[in-house]
Amino acid sequence: MKENNRKCVVLGVTGGIACYKSCELVSRLTKAGVDVYVIMTEHATKLVQPLTFQTLSKHPVAVDTFQPVNAFEVEHIALAQRADLFVIAPATANILAKLACGIADDMLSTTALATKAPMLVAPAMNTGMWENPATQANVRTLQARGVQLCGPAGGLLACGDTGIGRMSEPAEIAEAALALLGKQDVMRGLKVLVTAGPTREPIDPVRFITNRSSGKMGYALAEAACSMGAEVTLVSGPVSLTPPAGTRVLSVETTEDLLAVMQAEAPAQDIIIQAAAPADYKPTEVAEQKIKKKAGDPLTLVMIETPDVAKAVGALRREGQFIAGFAAETEKVTEHALEKLDRKNLNMIVANDVTRPGAGFDVDTNIITVITRGGMKEFPLMSKADAAKAILEEILAARKTGGAACTRR
What CATH number did the domain enclosing 364 receive? Predict the structure, then answer.
C-alpha cells in the first residue's frame, strides 16, 4: 500500500541498449514528485546495475519473482496494486509480444498482467523488428486495449542502421507520463453512468431481435472514466466483454429493462453517456413455445416500437446534469445527429458513419464527430480507447462552457 499521497509510477526496464536512458527517466519523475518503483528484466541487469536505479529511485529494485523485496508482500501483486501508472521503457519487441499475448514468465510481465493501472510503453528496437507484421499486430492489440505509446523515434540506431526504432528521449517519456498521471483526477467526485451494448427483444423462448452492437465503445468509455477518477456505473446489455475494474455493473436484457434502470439511476448522475444500442422494435406477441417451421410457409412478425430511452432520460435532465448520446448512422450522419440532439434533449451527441471502414460494429476502432449546440469536432480513425478519452475530454470542456465547447470545423 502507499505510504503517502504521491503518485506512483512502476517502471519496467527491459534489456534494450536504450535502458541506460531510463536512469534519466527515473531522475526526472522523482524530481517531479513521483514515487518510482523499478522492475528490471534479467537481461536489463546485464546493461545497467540494479543499484543505479535503487539509488535514483530510493526504492529497492525488483528483478526475481521468487525473491520478494518485502517478505510480507507478494511483490508483483503489491507493485501492480501500488501503481498509478505502469511505464515500460525501453519496451522491446519481446515485451510487447508478451503483453499482447498475456504471457507472464518473469517479474515484469507478471506484474504488468496483474496491474489495473493505465500503461505507457516506449518501444525501442531495430527498424526491421519494429516494422515486422507481428510487432505491428501486437502494437495494434495493445492500443486497442488502451495502452499508450510514446515513440519510437527515427534516427541512427545502436546496430548502425538508420530508421524508426529509437526510444523516445527521457524528457518526452516523462512528459507523457506526467500528463497521464494528471488526467487521473480530473473526474474525481463526479458520478458517471455509461450504457453499453445491445438489447434483445424475445420472439420465442430461443429467438430474439437484436443488433450488431458489441458494447466495446461503451466499455471503453466506462474504463476511461474510471481511470480519470470518476465513480462509474455501467449499464450493460448482453455482451461478451469483461467489465472494467472499479465499475458498478447493472445488466439489462430488453429495452424495457434498460428504461427501468435508467429511470432509477439517472437522477443521481452528474454525467450520462448513452452508448448502448437498444432495439427500436419488438414483436407485439412473444410465443410461449419455440416457433416451428411449417412446410416452407413464411413467418410474419408484427412489430411495435420500443420505448425511446434516450428521449425519456433527456426529458428528465436536471440542472447541471450533462447527457451525451450516440448516433450510429448510414447516411446523412450530421443531419440525423443534429435532429437527435434536439429531439432527445441532449447536451452532446457523438455521430459516426457505421458504413466507413474501421467505424462499424464489433471493431476496436472508431471514427467520430462530437457535436454540441456550439459546433462540432471531427476526429480521425483511432482506437475506441482513444476515442473514449477524447469524448470525455470534450464532455469536461463542454461542462465548463455550458455545453458549447466544440469548435465547428
Answer: 3.40.50.10300
**Predicted local distance difference test score (pLDDT) of residue 407:** 47
Same-domain check for residues 162 and 202: no
C-alpha cell at 282: 419488438
| 3-12, 136-145, 263-272, range with greatest mean pLDDT | 263-272
Cβ–Cβ under 8 Å, residues 216 and 191: no
Secondary structure element (H or E) that encloses residue 336, with its range: helix 333-343
Shared-domain flag, residues 237 and 94: no
What DSSP assignment string belongs to 87-141?
Answer: EEEEE-HHHHHHHHHT---SHHHHHHHH--S-EEEEE---HHHHHSHHHHHHHHH
Note whether residue 119 is domain-resident. Answer: yes
Domain of 364 in residue numbering reads as: 191-287+297-400
- In whole angstroms, what is the distance from residue 163 CA to residue 78 CA? 39
Q: Which pTM value belongs to this model?
A: 0.64
DSSP secondary structure letter of residue 266: G
Q: State the Cα–Cα distance between residues 407 and 392, nearest whole angstrom.
A: 16
CA angle 392, 394, 396 (to 5 degrees): 70
| Whole-number Cα distances in Å, 270 to 231, 276, 277 | 10, 18, 21
19 is a catalytic site residue: no
Rounded average pLDDT over 24-48? 92
Mean pLDDT of 165-185: 85
- Segment 290-303 mean pLDDT: 88
Indicate which residue of 23, 150, 159, 226 is catalytic: 159
